[in-house]
Amino acid sequence: KQWYQRRVAITAGITNNLRSMLLGRISRLVSPSLCRSNHTVTLFPGDGIGPQISESVKEIFAAADVPITWEEHEVYPILEKNGKTRIPQPAIDSIFKNKIGLKGPMRTAIGKGHVSLNLTIRRTFGLYANVRPAKTVPGVKTPYSEEGVDCVIMRENTEGEYSGIEHTVVPGVVQSVKLITRVASRNVAEYAFKYAVDNGRSNIVALHKANIMKMSDGTFLEECRAVAEQFPQIKYREMYLDSACLKIVKDPSQFDVMLMPNLYGDIFSDLTAGLIGGLGLAPSGNMGKDGIAIYEAVHGTADDLTATNKGNPTALLMSGLMMLRHLELTSYADKIEKAILETLTERKFVTGDIGGSATNPQYTAEICRKIRASS
């Protein structure tokens, strides 16, 4: 009996050792990325420098071993018989399937042509809230570098003057309609207050011109006030848009979250981008119904930089980091952000829009090198 027990013990020991050895060898052979949950993200490279900076994002994410599979689609306008514009169905299906996307800048004709593709995308996917953070970037000197800028623009994203409702009244007289609805106003207000709570923000100011546009901006403010009552922990106030432009330039620290209708948000966010060093550093996220989110840079196509290969991918990269945090891939976002900020601070490989002379590939390669060195 004792002999049998010893044989059983020896056999069990050998079996356990073999199992441990095999598992160890397998774990060394299998890439860690295969053991993680992978996210499929829709990518719209866009126009102008869009494909160039989108490629930078893909290279940098790959260097950081981010568990993402890109599903890339070309987006262009399709004019239907009823006169409305839509984007290709495969692109629509991809967003509805994946619920998450990254979008490069898209060209919009000035004074003619199809409805803006940006507007079409927002309407198609119900992207009612546009989140545009503006935060001082280390290594990029501005008049506000010492005191710092740290604010967020919350822009209604589907209506207002950007509804695209225009017509000729009589020859020589054109009318453009500013559309404001209670539903859209309440949607963006609710998102703004929930965002403030979730991100440790303490106050919200609604920007408006209700002294002139009493019904439209007045309706927007009524909905903001109604939502504010549900969040007593957040300080709420209102301010004229033009007054806010003056005050934020004098002292950006007065502002935390700024909530406003569509057109105001588009203009005001260019102002805040100027406070931190330019549009090349300004990210954004479009938040919609059913959990859909599409992230994009604030800037346009920058067609003049397309042939030079000097497009700055930072804004799209930072938008991508917002996306990663939305996907709860925070450690990857932190790793990439650290490499970006180190590169900007050293200033050896920065692009022309922020005072350097590097090309897009040089800037991208340096960030990738820092990421790999830190791994």
Shape: globular
Give the N-terminus to C-terminus distance in angstroms.
55 Å
| Mean pLDDT figure | 90
Largest sheet: 10 strands, mixed
Q: Report the sheet-strand fraction.
A: 15-25%
Query: Helical residue percent?
Result: 40-55%
Q: Strand order across the biggest sheet?
A: 2-1-5-14-13-6-7-12-10-11
Radius of gyration: 25 Å
Number of helices, where a helix is a run of at least 4 consecutive DSSP H or I residues: 11
Q: Low-confidence parts lasting 5 or more residues at pLDDT below 50?
A: 22-35
User: Which structural category do the helix and sheet elements fall into?
Assistant: alpha/beta
What pattern of helices and strands is seen along the backbone?
Answer: HEHEEEHEHEEEEHEHEHEHEEHHH
Please count the beta strands (DSSP E, at least 2 residues each): 14
Structural write-up:
With 375 residues, this protein is an alpha/beta fold. It is 43% helix and 18% strand. Strands 2-1-5-14-13-6-7-12-10-11 form a ten-stranded mixed beta sheet, sandwiched between helices. α2 (50-63) crosses α9, α5 packs parallel to α6 (216-228) and α10 (330-346) crosses α11. The longest helix is centred in the first third of the chain and has 28 residues, at 2-29. It is globular, with a radius of gyration of 25 Å.
Defining key terms:
14 strands; single chain; ten-stranded mixed beta sheet
List the helices and strands and how they pair.
Layout: H1 2-29, E1 39-44, H2 50-63, E2 68-72, E3 78-79, E4 85-86, H3 89-98, E5 100-103, H4 117-124, E6 129-135, E7 150-156, E8 166-170, E9 173-176, H5 182-198, E10 203-208, H6 216-228, E11 235-240, H7 241-250, E12 257-260, H8 262-276, E13 283-287, E14 293-297, H9 314-326, H10 330-346, H11 360-374
